[in-house]
Amino acid sequence: VQRVLATSNPNTSDFAQRLGIGEDAAEDLQAAGTFLIGLAGRTESNDEIVAGVTRSGIIPGNSAESVTSFLSGVRRPDLARFMRASRVADRTLPSYKNFSSSVDVRLDFTAGSVDLAVPVLVAVIATDQDQERTWFQMNRDQLSDLVKILQGRLRQMDLAEEWIRARPSGAK
To answer: The pTM is what?
Structure first.
């Protein structure tokens, strides 16, 4: 659940493989889970939420027990704290939503034939702001530099989380 909350781009293939289901079914399950996790942040009781989504036809009545069980699982105090921390982290600036990329080959021609071929990474970053996307391209050296920078930042995030947990009033 924390993986779904932390990213809007969970790996559907891995999820499908772990559950032994097809990718289409896994994608549907992730969408349903994300929807229910959103409802879990509301103040109504699980029974009230389930009654509302059943009454509106969003879920069939024979799924009510499963949905109630799911909501009970995601409304645990540790997940509530995780969701609250996510909201605090997402304040003020647009937040990362998705990253997509592909490798393209750029060709240069001389005298009507291919003279040079260069691979580039074409990428887009989306944020939680409507229609806010940044497209860019990178060569191999730039990509390698970015990977090193991000690996360093990941280590710093790990250290920051350790430091927070070590504080008397730190996150649990």
So the answer is: 0.55
